[in-house]
Amino acid sequence: MPCVCICVFMSVWARGLQVCPGLTLPKVKGKCIPALAGFFFLLSVTMTGCFLWQYHLRKAELGSSDMEVISETVRMCPRYPEPVPLQHPLPVLKEALEKVDRLLQQIMPTVPGLTAMSAVVIYNDTVLWTGNFGRKNGSDRASGPPTEYTIYRIASISKIFPTIMLYRLWEEGIVASLDDPLERYAQSFRIKNPLETGPRPFWGRLMDGLEEGAPPFKSTTVTLRRMASQLSGLPRRLRSTTLLWRGSTEDALALLQDDVLVADPGTRCHYSTLAFSLLAHVLTRHTGNKDYQRWVSENILDRLGMEDTGFDLVPWVQARMAAGFYGSGNPAPLYDLGWYRPSGQMYSTPSDLAKLAMVLLGSAPQSVLTPDTLKTMLTPLLTCPGTYFANQTGTPWEFHGQRGYSIVRKDGDLDGYAATFSLVPQLKLSFIVLMAGPRPPGPDLVTQVYNVLIPAMETAFREVERSLASPPNPGPYLGFYTYANLTFYEILLGPSGVLCMQQFGPQVEKLIPAKFRTLKLHHLQGRVFQMVVDKEFPCVLPLGAAWLPLETQHGQLLNFYPFDQRGLSPGFDAPGLSTYKVLRMAQKPVFKTAA
């Protein structure tokens, strides 16, 4: 028989039920039967650790003997399906991408000054969809639409690159620790911290008096990682400067000596353009390289083939740019950010940023960081208060919770332009949108897009036909098994040699739908198998006054015992379910109902 969905646990106790061979349950007469049946049911649940499934009774209302009837939306599982290769176009994805296209088309004309928009959806190492809307030059009616190769200013998305630089130098040993204090790389760094609450760091004590004639000072806890994650406490900008300031790093450090931190480092999320620019310039000087832009070009852009990404708005770049506008409809000037360039000067295209997204998702053939470092870079560091614009902050990301996933996001807004670079690492999914004009007000555009994409990706992953491995020799595993004569299973050979495990018994067949009694066993190595659900299934299966959480079993391991003299495995354990000694039976048990 074909293997379908999932194996379930159920006590075989029933009124006067007998199981042969191996167990005879006593006949019980009169009013004791329901109570005794309930006792054995609860006993079996307790003994087995809910192998293979745990039952939950619905909560009764206080003072009521009747079970509360709960009406709830059925949620499908696996809750966070594992990304798998997809053959695009899939109908469910095609429909979702069409919805995204319509959404962006509808938003464009409602935003004054928004004249051009380009967006891209990436899954793993593939561009699933690109959308281009409006006109490349909104003031020229003869201008054509933008394309995925149209250049836009990306504003604060530029902050991704100093962060990659920090992690890369850490991998190479040029930076000793991500949590090094800034003073280690800029000895003249001083700033007042009137809000300090923690003990003085050991590094600060070592730095005391290093400069001749300088009074002892308290080292801050402004670390490199905190600078890259909006946790440094540094002000948004240097005092008395604008984003067009053209001073030097030495000038910046001098200005900071009479400034104050706005938060004790590491304790509060506070957005700082200053922190990223200072980090980039200090790290560049530490490498012996005098040009941050050159380092980024040689170590990131050239390596990833991001040919249309850079800093300088030279004539050929401007000729390919979508013209930026204010909400008033007036054209926005192309400011040069001077010393603050690392934090917001860069330009790029949807095509180039798609390459970067694939690298950060770990899906591209090229790389700039190791997989372990990427995981560190994509991990949130602190939960932010409700007044902050993100749920959590990281390096350099803002994290937003949505539909059970953490959306890794970097927004950028600069005169005449708005942009968002976002990832959902669990789904290997990315959405990037670049705009010439202001960001749409009202409901967040990116959130609306993910509300369409995430359910579609989950459905696609759950419905895809999985490639499962069969054991070299299935014979030693085939047969009937029981756990303490309470639950019964048959392991049989399914299609393509893949093993299936089917639970059976009168009560199981009475209460559990057929498609939830059988699952497939994916051979991993030796005598170890993984229980797999091919298609999506309800996370919780209602069973009258109880319910069955089906999602627990998907992905659990079965460890079969060494073969006996007959060449058969005597049984198996399910350690992830705290269940041991599920033993082979000589033959299929016969269930008899007492007269």
Structural write-up:
This protein is 24% helix and 21% strand. Strands 5-4-13-12-11-10-9-8 form an eight-stranded antiparallel beta sheet, with helices on both faces. An eight-stranded antiparallel barrel has the order 14-15-16-17-18-22-23-24. The longest helix is centred in the last third of the chain and has 19 residues, at 445-463. A hairpin with a 2-residue loop joins strand 10 and strand 11 (405-414). With 595 residues, it is an alpha+beta fold. The protein has helices at residues 32-48, 91-107, 160-171, 202-207, 224-227, 249-256, 273-286, 292-304, 315-319, 341-344, 350-360, 371-377, 445-463, 506-511; strands at 17-20, 56-57, 76-77, 116-123, 126-134, 152-153, 347-348, 382-383, 392-393, 398-402, 405-414, 417-424, 429-436, 479-483, 487-493, 499-504, 518-525, 528-532, 537-538, 540-543, 546-549, 557-560, 571-574, 579-585, 590-593. The model is unreliable at 1-51, 53-72 and 201-218 (pLDDT under 50). It contains 14 helices and 25 strands. The two termini are 33 Å apart. The relative contact order is 0.18.
